[in-house]
Amino acid sequence: MNDRKINIEIIRSSRRTIAMEITRDLRVLVRAPFRMPDSDVQRFIKDKSSWLYKHLELAKKKIEMYEQQEKTAAKLTREEISQLADKALRVIPERAAFYAPAVGVKFGKITIRNQKTRWGSCSSKGNLNFNCLLMLAPPEVIDYVVVHELCHIKELNHSARFWSEVERVLPDYKEPKEWLKKNGNGLIQRMRQK
Questions:
Q1: How confident is the model at residue 62 (pLDDT cuts 50, 70, 90)?
Q2: Are residues 61 and 103 in the same domain?
Q3: 85-91: long-range pairs with CB below 8 Å, 24+
Q4: What is the pLDDT of residue 114?
Q5: Cα–Cα–Cα angle for 77, 81, 85, nearest 5°?
């Protein structure tokens, strides 16, 4: 097919129609009726070439993404945790400084920890603690946790007023909140060394 060589397996059966599929291991199968002439099968393959290239690329990307997720699910070494903490010390104070005026608060000291239960916390004095594992989360999740803790300087609880304040600053906060709910435990599991 054109200048890109793709191995296609043709499977004949008693079916009435012709169809193409890409398997999980990236094999390309064309299922055709017994009586369909080879010329018609080849014409079908040629007509489906654009579809095939597009979906092969999508399938490859899915596999690469899955392999990357498997890779990132490995336990973190002490050195990696230290690197995450260093990164968090650069990123989080900057995000806190960015959002504090929007929340309308001033914060005290920022501490980065490798916690196994919390993503962040706020003291009554306005000091903030953050989990270094946030550096493994998407940027919008980091921003959500930062805004969450900044809002606690105003409201040291999870009242309706608190969530209203979070929503005022981050109208789409429910999406990163849900991401953390679904994926947070997996990140924390990476911290749990023997």
A1: confident
A2: no
A3: 85/112, 85/113, 85/114, 85/132, 87/132, 87/135, 88/112, 88/130, 88/132, 88/134, 88/135, 91/135, 91/142
A4: 85
A5: 170
Which residue type is seen at 65? M
> CATH number, domain at 160?
3.30.2010.10
- 172 and 124 in one domain? yes
E strand segments, the chain: 8-13, 19-22, 28-33, 110-113, 120-122, 128-131
Same domain, 85 and 67: no
Rounded distance between C-alpha atoms, residue 33 and residue 31, angstroms: 7
Longest dimension (CA), the chain: 81
- Global confidence as pTM: 0.62
Which of 54, 72, 90 terminates a domain? The answer is 72
Q: Is residue 194 part of a domain?
A: no
CA–CA dist 134, 150 (Å, integer): 16
The parent domain of residue 185 ranges over: 78-189
